[in-house]
Amino acid sequence: MILLKYASKSAVFFVLTTVLGSFAVDAQAQVFPTSVKGWESVGKVTVPLSKQRALVTAPGDAILAHASDRRGRPDDLVSTAAYGDIELAFDYLLADGAEATLYLHDAYPIALADAKAGVYPPRQQVVRAPGIWQQLRIRFRAPRFDSQGHNIAPARLLRAELNGVVIHEDVQLPAPGASSGRAEAPLRLAVSRGGVAIKNFTADSLPEANPSGEWGGADPILVTAQVNTMLRSFMDVPGGSRVVHAISVGHPEQVHYTYDLDKGSLFQVWRGGFLDATPMWNSRGNGTSRVLGSPLYFGVPALTVGRLATTGEPWPADTTGTGYKPKGYAVDAADLPTFRYQVYGRQVEDAIRPLAKGDGFTRTVAVAGDTDGLYVRLAAAPAITDQGKGVFLIGDNAWYLRVEEAGKGKPFIRSQQDGQELLVPASAVIRYSIIF
User: Fold this and answer.
1) Same domain, 249 and 148
2) Domain contains 377
3) How far is the C-alpha of 98 from the C-alpha of 15, rounded, in Å?
4) How many whole angstroms separate alpha carbon 301 and alpha carbon 383?
5) CA-closest candidate to residue 343, choices 373, 379, 311, 299
6) Picking from 123-127, 203-207, 305-309, which range would have the lowest pLDDT averaged per residue?
7) How many domains does the chain have?
8) What is the pTM (predicted TM-score) of this model?
9) How far is CA 218 from CA 162, 222, 274, 279, 281, in A?
10) pLDDT exceeds 90 at position 122
11) pLDDT averaged over every residue in the chain
């Protein structure tokens, strides 16, 4: 049994959930039976941060969900087609405490269970928090049989990628207790308990293996974070932009982040390994490093503290006219940096620290002096949902933001041309947590 692990506050360990089909979601009926006990088609699912065992649904048909155990365990989902060698891809979401097992070839389990049940630990722990959408891709080679039905070659998990990170590669799967002797078999998903949701599933014939050797045969140059670690480099971000004064900070809790010193901006966080410095240091190098784990991007780097004449005014596009001046950073006894800069004539300190159990980060933004007219931008995303009591769900179940301290101000969501922003009036101290 192959596991993906997420260590939450209750030390529950998550592995995957589902998949099925060579069809898009709108062709769901071609993949599954039209009616399966305990499952429903829905348009949206959410898991409140304050009640993470609850899976809340909204009407629609883009997502397949098992939301409640009140009527007992749901029936297994069994694909209407049988498959041999296959590449699967899907998104999944789990409520806290959920347990499910996907059976490749109706026999080889990929499961959600505690760590003792797993045989093959993943290379990196990149599983995200309960209630957050995740993406899994699997390449599976079915077992081979002779004309008498005898197994002549075992099944293999050729590759598994979770949230864009390779976690398993070329793993021989043990034969099930009673082999069917079939070259093709259906996929099956069994839920033991808890809320499970899936979407965007595809199943295709297994492609040819891609050639390796991106760096011309050079050994990769990897930077670990067995202790709190900092590395300056260029960092490319989606959309083609390059941060040239980036500093990445790694932690033994296996949660890390990158900070743009030119804007006082936290622009990405990730879970898993720290950095691949091969492009920076191999041969002549190009100065860039890349994250080893699964990154969560916060958009194009932008100022964290901005001045607005009205709450409808657009957020500053750059540092022009803000008087922004980086002042470096101070490192504490644990080798953790607090970034310092000046903006609008005010001194700002920005401290980002890993949460105790590696659930994410807490960020403290301190502004000295008069803060009238200044705001702190906590998040920007296509959609932001207020879950109440200072908790916000960012994007399409991408991450949670929990406001811990906001002075006398109150966070508010506003709509902009390209999405929504979560702002709070600046005060001496603004503190919030990023949970992903």
Assistant:
1) no
2) yes
3) 9
4) 18
5) 373
6) 203-207
7) 2
8) 0.87
9) 25, 12, 19, 11, 11
10) no
11) 87
